Amino acid sequence: MNIRYIKRIYFRIPIILKLLMIVLITMIFFGIIIHFIEPLQFPTAFDGIWWAFVTAATVGYGDYVPLTPTGRIIGILLILTGGGLIAFYISSLSTTTLKREQDLENGRLAFHGHDHFIFVGWNERTRQLMKLVLEYYPGRRIVVIDKTVNKLTYKEYPVHFIQGDATEDDTIKKANIANANCVLITADITKDEKQADTYSIMTTIAMRGNHMTLPIVTEILSKKQIENAIRAGATTIIRSNDFMSSLFFHELDHLMQATPFEDIDQLLVQQQFSHQKLPLDLEEETFSKVVNNFLHQGYLVLGLIRDDAYTIHPKPDFIMEENDILITITNW
């Protein structure tokens, strides 16, 4: 039983550590032998071990040299065995390092960090989002899961890439979802809307099954699938088609000279939205008074939510009521 347990541990040890252990044992073995054979030349066992490493590494400082025939035979055996072991260890170390870099680029390595963002889908939207995250949260790590991309270079894109299907538990666990901060699931616009939404919903179910409290932001293309995405466990639904349709409408027909797309883009980049519950002392007050009050706190009030209905830019004399939720923007 003990031998079987030792074998199991041994075979689980990485090859680099196995080689390092063999090198250390070999150097210690030869160092101790030369110490006992030539105690005058090698007063301590450490002196012998030092000589063994220097000799096997072909450095040859010459501070310790065996003088007797027996000692020189030991030196020959050390060169034939230890020298090869050290050379093999160094070459294996180089090979392992190179393989790890390749595995990282090819998405085979699991992520072991924490408080990171997980992006499902590698596309122009996630690339632009990556730049924004790195600009505003430079210390935040990003994990990208995609089954269509075969390689991502870290130097070009500073993310941890995992190649695989985001609906499978093995892939999700590689992304270390247990310690993630948030998940963003983007729709695959190369598929038709129903297929893309089905995959997004299946991914949401898989993510929620692995982490019950994690915020999950899911992009849905069709209105018919919004309820399914909510039932699947999505915390927030991004209705990209609705947003783009409204934006197209503004571009087609706006009375005043403006650039709606650029305006909204800069608003989202430079400011962040925040919902604030109406303070008790501002109930039954006018909207203009509420705006002035929040401006002093660094918030710009755009409108309010009352009974799940949105009212944007109400009249200045609009009377605020209890349980109103203020829609505000503020600096990042």
TrEMBL record:
Residues 114-239 form the RCK N-terminal domain. InterPro entries: K_chnl_dom (IPR013099), NAD(P)-bd_dom_sf (IPR036291), RCK_C_sf (IPR036721), RCK_N (IPR003148), Trk_Ktr_HKT_K-transport (IPR050721). Its main location: membrane. It is a multi-pass membrane protein. The keyword Ion transport applies. The chain crosses the membrane at residues 15-37, 73-90. PROSITE patterns: RCK_N (PS51201). Keywords: Ion channel, Ion transport, Membrane, Transmembrane, Transmembrane helix, Transport. It is found in: Cell membrane. Pfam families: Ion_trans_2, TrkA_N. GO terms for biological process: monoatomic ion transmembrane transport. This is Potassium channel protein YugO. The gene is yugO.
